[in-house]
Amino acid sequence: MLVCRCSGVSDRVVRRLAGEGASTVRQVAGACGAGAGCGECRRSIRDLIAAEPSAEIPVAERNDSRPAQADWNSPNPTPPPAS
Questions:
Q1: How many other β-carbons are positioned within 10 Å of the β-carbon of residue 73?
Q2: Do the domain assignments include residue 71?
Q3: What is the separation of C-alpha 44 from the centre of its chain, rounded to a whole number of angstroms?
Q4: What is this structure's pTM?
Q5: Per-residue pLDDT tens for 5-39?
Q6: Is residue 65 part of a domain?
Q7: What Cα–Cα distance (Å) separates residue 27 from each residue in 12, 35?
Q8: Cα torsion 8, 61, 27, 20: sign
Q9: Which domain CATH number covers 8?
Q10: DSSP 3-state assignment of 40?
Q11: Residue 19 maps to a domain
Q12: Is 9 helix (H, G, I), strand (E, B) or coil?
């Protein structure tokens, strides 16, 4: 099933990324472009991530303490927390 028309990304790609650890729409968008365009697919992407069996915490309940993307562009970016 096509999830993102703007980028031509299927549910299989989103599920694979979620299985590999993507836990936000922003992470999926960064990996494949889905959700980065018009935004119509973002809810579907969130639902697919939440439905992934390997998801530790449902996306709606996740307290993501990782720095925002803009923080990675600073001269001294903070490394992500250890998994």
A1: 8
A2: no
A3: 11
A4: 0.65
A5: 999 999 999 999 999 999 999 999 999 999 999 99
A6: no
A7: 16, 10
A8: negative
A9: 1.10.10.1100
A10: coil
A11: yes
A12: strand
Range of the domain at 24: 2-60
Q: How many domains does the chain have?
A: 1
- How far from 6 is each of 11, 49, 65, CA to CA, in Å? 14, 19, 29
| Cβ 29 vs Cβ 35: under 8 Å | yes
Could you report the per-residue pLDDT of 31-63, keeping only the tens digit for each? Answer: 999 999 999 999 999 999 999 887 554 445 444
Asked, for residue 18, whether it belongs to a domain, the answer is yes
Residue type, 39: G
**Dihedral sign, CA of 21, 22, 27, 31?**
positive
**Token duo for residue 54:** 């390997």
Q: Tokens 């927390």 appear where? A: 81
Strand extents, DSSP E, the chain? 2-4, 9-10
- Rounded-to-integer distance, Cα 5 and Cα 41, Å: 8
Q: Which two tokens stand for residue 58?
A: 């449902």
